[in-house]
Protein: tRNA (cytidine/uridine-2'-O-)-methyltransferase TrmJ
Organism: Desulfonema limicola
Amino acid sequence: MPENMPGRINPEHITIVLNQPRYPENIGSGARAMRNMGFYNLIVVDPENFDLEKVEKLSTHAARDVVEKIQIFDNLQKALSPFNYVVGTTARLGGQRQVNSPSVMAEKLIPISKENNIAIVFGREDRGLSNEDIRLCHGLVNIPTADFSSLNLAQAVMVICYELFNAGTKKKHDFNPRLASCYELNGMYKDLKDVLIKISYINPENPDYWMNYIRKFFTRMNLRAREVGIIRGLIRQVNWYGQKMYKDGLDHKKNQEADL
């Protein structure tokens, strides 16, 4: 792309993820909305009713290529494992949630999309994404509305895809390297939680409460795969040293008892 052209989202690196959709018609309408905006990658997670005939009817022939490539998974964590950056959609604001508008989110994704696979996750029609689902996300986006805040799933997909399609800026973006995948990050968080419990840094009865803060800390850094590998190496070394000191303490105690 010439330098004097505005930066744009790389559509090949964008995947729309519908988590536990209830109605096949919404899947079809969502696929059609994606196709209108030039996006083709669609994942459906644990659908309540995946009636292909109804999906195809609402997607129309224009989005047949999107429907034919739909990937279906049984749980969200597995579906998101290969992605380097995940954005969750939410209607709830406040609390500890740092939420962007669709336009701001789209601008932020321009440089990331050059070298990274990005998932945009939509929750169930009746209750959206759970707190557990949101923990898998690097960022959150909210579609502002007037007094009536309930959007149809396909409408929400259209709004987000429109902003992604329309996003662009005249300034040259900095190089953005490949980020660690969700699979790599989840492995790091598991190792970190285990060792922090062992050294009594976090409460073993409620470790996820403290891990949420740690996740947010690392999420702000946009860790690369190599950096995750370094952190996991440090965690393994801390774990090894703790076990060694414990064993050395037992051996020292046995030697003392033997000398008595």
